[in-house]
From TrEMBL:
<keyword id="KW-0732">Signal</keyword>
<feature type="signal peptide">
    <location>
        <begin position="1"/>
        <end position="22"/>
    </location>
</feature>
<protein>
    <recommendedName>
        <fullName>Outer membrane protein with beta-barrel domain</fullName>
    </recommendedName>
</protein>
Length: 234
């Protein structure tokens, strides 16, 4: 009798285990169409007092981002990204440049941070209908529209005794992002991602008209991507 009870219990536990395994496999096979990402890496700001860019004489600062992506098809997704980048002036400006800055009452230095948020469509080079079937490597990219807010301390000279003034500005920008992802497993990727945030202003640094283009932010980040729940209607 005891042997029959043990055998029945073993069969029951075995059946229950098979059921749980089947349910888990079914859940994994359901397409997970939502992705969260966290990125960190070096960055620099293209500013009028930012340095000599052709000579690579400028300052690197950290940047952090977080994003949420919603897959729309096997190739396209919509992506919302927010983050912060620290910026600073730099380089060794010539006497001619500083004389012009002084005459225009422009800022010699600018140090602070820029907070940003944008939304953009993104496209994958290799399409995939299910997260379980994605390729080992994939290339993605896109552009969109966003808004940024900068807060910097600026000085009108290189005099160390000058008290910096706080300046704030909010403006729009066009984000351009490309990345190369590598699949770590069924639900995770690691990616190398490059971004340029092309702003609509030349005054993030309090210095206008020296460079040919407006002030822009450039980032290179290592991004961890995680596939989450399936679509809401499933």
């Amino acid at each position: 009798m005891l042997k029959k009870i043990k055998l029945s219990a073993f069969i029951l536990f075995l059946f229950a285990g098979m059921q749980l395994s089947a349910q888990s496999f079914y859940k994994e096979m359901q397409s997970k169409d939502n992705i969260i990402s966290i990125g960190i890496g070096p960055s620099f700001a293209y500013l009028d007092n930012g340095g000599q860019y052709r000579d690579y004489n400028f300052e690197l600062k950290p940047s952090i981002s977080a994003s949420f992506s919603k897959r729309l098809t096997d190739r396209f997704e919509i992506k919302a990204t927010g983050g912060v980048q620290w910026i600073t002036s730099g380089g060794n400006p010539s006497t001619t440049a500083t004389n012009i800055w002084k005459a225009n009452n422009s800022s010699f230095t600018a140090i602070g941070s820029v907070y940003y948020f944008d939304v953009m469509p993104s496209m994958y080079l290799v399409p995939f209908g299910n997260h379980m079937n994605r390729s080992l490597f994939n290339f993605y990219g896109g552009f969109g529209l966003g808004v940024m807010h900068s807060s910097t301390e600026q000085t009108k000279s290189f005099n160390s005794e000058e008290k910096p003034g706080r300046e704030k500005i909010t403006t729009g920008y066009v984000p351009i992002r490309v990345g190369l992802s590598y699949s770590l497993g069924p639900l995770s990727d690691i990616a190398l991602e490059g971004s340029m945030l092309a702003s609509f202003t030349d005054n993030l640094d309090g210095n206008v008209g020296v460079n040919k283009y407006s002030d822009h932010l450039v980032q290179g980040q290592i991004v961890f991507r995680r596939y989450l729940f399936s679509t809401f209607d499933r």
